[in-house]
């Protein structure tokens, strides 16, 4: 009888072990729908990762361009400041004298008002004067004999 009980307990253990293995296999393998959803999630995750990498590369490029533009603008500002500072220095061979340069630098630069000329200048007076005095009908190359 002992042998029969041992065989029955062995058979029950074997059946229980096989049943647990079958349940475990069904639970871990999942349905085809679950596998498809897992595959879709993995693809979406890969696509999101690629999008993030593309965006980071674009942002890095924009940041580099902004940095280069900022340096270019800083250089231009420094050049302009240098030109303003150098403007006060007199050149080695000035065109005007020191006094004339000083007067021109400190002169008020107001635009001149255009005046209406009602009268002709004296050089172009209405009556004949000086060299132009004489008759109008007299030819220039006239023989005086």
From TrEMBL:
Keywords: Coiled coil, Membrane, Transmembrane, Transmembrane helix
Annotated coiled-coil segments of the chain: 31-86
Keyword Coiled coil part of the UniProt annotation: yes
Region (Disordered): 105-145
Transmembrane feature ranges: 7-27
Bias kind Polar residues: ranges: 135-145
Protein name, as recorded: DUF1043 family protein
Top-level taxonomy: Bacteria, Pseudomonadati, Pseudomonadota, Gammaproteobacteria, Alteromonadales
């Amino acid at each position: 009888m002992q042998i029969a009980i041992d065989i029955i307990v062995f058979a029950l253990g074997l059946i229980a072990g096989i049943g647990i293995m079958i349940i475990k296999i069904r639970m871990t393998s999942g349905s085809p729908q679950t596998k498809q959803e897992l595959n879709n999630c993995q693809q979406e995750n890969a696509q999101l990762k690629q999008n993030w990498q593309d965006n980071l590369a674009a942002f890095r490029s924009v940041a580099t361009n902004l940095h280069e533009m900022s340096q270019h603008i800083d250089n231009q500002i420094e050049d302009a400041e240098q030109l303003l500072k150098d403007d006060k220095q007199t050149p080695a061979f000035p065109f005007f004298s020191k006094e004339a340069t000083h007067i021109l630098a400190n002169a008020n630069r107001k635009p001149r008002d255009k005046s209406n000329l009602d009268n002709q200048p004296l050089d172009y007076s209405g009556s004949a004067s000086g060299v132009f005095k004489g008759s109008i009908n007299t030819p220039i190359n006239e023989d005086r004999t």
